[in-house]
Amino acid sequence: MEEKETQEILTRIQTMERELSFLKERVLTLSSPKTAQKQVTPPVPKPIPIETNQTEVSLQDGPNWFVEWIGENLFVKLGVFSLLLASIWFFYLAIEEYWINESVRIWIGLVSAIPILLYGYRVRNTRPYLSPSLMGLGIAVLFSAYYSGYLWYDLYSTEVCFVGLLIISLTTVAIAHAQKSEVLFGFASLGAFLVPLLLSTGQNSYPFLFTYLLLWNVLFFWVRKNTGWKVIPLILLAANHLIFVGWANDNLVDAKPFFPIVFQLGVFVLFLLREFQTLETTKSKEPILTLVTIGFTVGLGFVQSFWVFSVFYPVAKPFLLSLILILFYGLYERSIRKTELNIEKKKIYDLIGLFGLPFIVSLIVIGTTGKLLAFSLISFAFLVTVASTYSKQLYMYFAAFPVWFFALFYVFAFTYRSQNEIPFLNGRFLVFATGSVYLLLSYLYSRKFSELSKLFLYAAYPYWLLGTFVEIYLGFPEEKKLFLYTLSLIVYGLVALTVGFLKRIQPLKIVGFGSLALVIIKFYLYDFWNLSLGYRILAGLFLGITLIVTGTLYNHFKKETK
């Protein structure tokens, strides 16, 4: 391909040279005709032949590139590494032989960080990927050397060490902010979070700890402005909660509520504000790490708040956790109002809107018990379906299905007969009846929004029938159960079939025919052999009348069914 392009370029050059020679000759002819007759036309340059087969190659293009790479690159790096090893061994030997005292050792560590920092700063423009790492390494060496003077040699007090380490961390933050370097800010964050842990004296000074960490998070909130950092926020969020867990395991019960609660709320609000602002300004179509950070902020904040409120305010815990979720959705709505929503942004915000749903379900479980809890779960699933249909949020609509599944079958945890319970007039059947009505209403409300709405319709009648069977099983003696099962199938099937024909609702016709088909199968395969004579007569009587009525309805509306 390259040879062909070269040939074309040379051909064009030769053509231009011919035209230039012709123009020269023409100019000379017009200016001095007599002279022009005597002039000889300059020869046309011969085409330059193109060599298609190259016999010689340079060192870089040939197989000797590997030898050159070893000589120019690898040998140099190995030499630097060898000198570094020799320096470390010499330093170790000097310590062992006590050639240098404690203060000199610390100064050597401090001074050795300077060339690393200077070189990292010098190549910030020529090597943008290497520079932050080198400067971070220099900061780490400086931080470690200074801390070693406190830890091993007691060269200064705890307060002096704290101030020195804090100055190093803040200086690194300033450099990271100036260079917009996420790597360098990561080194600064690591040092800042390690300072209270490294200098801890075991006195449980949690007011200072949480005040220090909260101020650091405020600084991060400010520094991250107009940056596209993705990884550091997630690491800092994890660091905040890990430090809290490490402290709370042994000290939460004995602490005052103010500082732990303020710290948790502060981290919760600061991170949500920062990540929502990043989401508002980002042009990325897949801000995955931003979504992950928001999700973990909500999840960890809810879990840690649950822990704190369980210790300090157990009675008011459901109410306080509700305020946490209200705060999340308040910040969520604030961010939506400040954003110009396109299709991609709407999908992202729809997905974020689902983050609170598992915690709302958890809140319902925490706040209620028994049949009231089952009723609350079903009502919540219905409200989520209606809300998602109204707001046209397909993600929320999909998320409602697992909530429905859990809510509908949670009532089976209470399928036992209590004292003085009347069949079909108790809280358990009310849950079944309410679930069936909610399923039917969900279908009617969302049938134009999604094809999946048919699942609600197909589940409504079986759930009602299941509730009826549960009531018969728990509320009646054994000899009546089989007959009542058959009777309920007959009654429900006949009602569904009648309404289906009168209102011309095809699904109800299918339900009616299905119920009667089950009755016929059950009667001839099971009831005929197991029911007593009296119940067998009644079942056959009801079945016969029902089939006759069904045939009459079918013939009456036969034009519609054709």
From TrEMBL:
InterPro entries according to UniProt: DUF2339_TM
Keyword Nucleotide-binding: no
One of the Pfam families matching this protein, by short name: DUF2339
Alphabetical keyword list: Membrane, Transmembrane, Transmembrane helix
Record-annotated membrane-spanning stretches: 74-92, 104-122, 129-149, 155-176, 183-199, 205-224, 231-249, 255-276, 288-309, 315-332, 348-366, 372-390, 397-416, 422-443, 455-476, 482-501, 508-525, 537-557
PANTHER family, A to Z: BLL2549 PROTEIN
Protein name per its UniProtKB record: DUF2339 domain-containing protein
Organism phylogeny: Bacteria, Pseudomonadati, Spirochaetota, Spirochaetia, Leptospirales
